[in-house]
Amino acid sequence: MANDDEIPNGDAGLSDAEAAEARLGDRFRTGVLHRAGGERPSMGEIGLNQFAPYLMNRIMARWNLNMAEALKAHDLTTAKMRALTVLSVSSGLTINELSVFAVTEQSTMSRTLDSLEEQGYVRRRQRPDDMRVREVSLTEAGRDAFAAIWPMLYDMFDRLFDDVDEDEFQAFAGTLHKLLRNIRKHDI
């Protein structure tokens, strides 16, 4: 997959992505959300740089690449980091709950938990009130592992929002929550 960092930039002062978008002109930034009369706008009328799924995919693809690279130094994968992160906030989750919160397929989460258990970072126990259900929680070593990566995670998060003030951030987060409600498949 080509990424915007690989586009040659002959335009001084612009990032490679900005230079590429400038060369392509207005095809990527027209910004029509709804047409008069309720007709569906074309992709050209919306423009790629105003098409939220496209923008979210670009952001998350870059985020995930940067994250995976940074996690290598800690012998962690993105799936492991997501599990540790969720469990650092809410321990005692079932594998299904953890899969939903960590945005990871349940089969991938099961393998991830096997590996985290081998590393001594998590423990799985049967729920006392229902022996069929297993809960996952962090061990002390798991808490330490998360504490070791949290500064890196926060720094990446903080850089993502450079030049975004608090009001913009709150409005953005509020909009994301609305989008999540609109598209939600799970109750959690």
TrEMBL record:
UniProtKB keywords: DNA-binding, Transcription, Transcription regulation
SUPFAM superfamilies named in the record: Winged helix' DNA-binding domain
MF GO annotations: DNA binding; DNA-binding transcription factor activity
Keyword Protein transport (UniProt): no
Gene3D superfamilies the record matches: Winged helix-like DNA-binding domain superfamily/Winged helix DNA-binding domain (1.10.10.10)
UniProt source species: Segnochrobactrum spirostomi
Protein name: MarR family transcriptional regulator
HTH marR-type domain ranges (all copies): 49-181
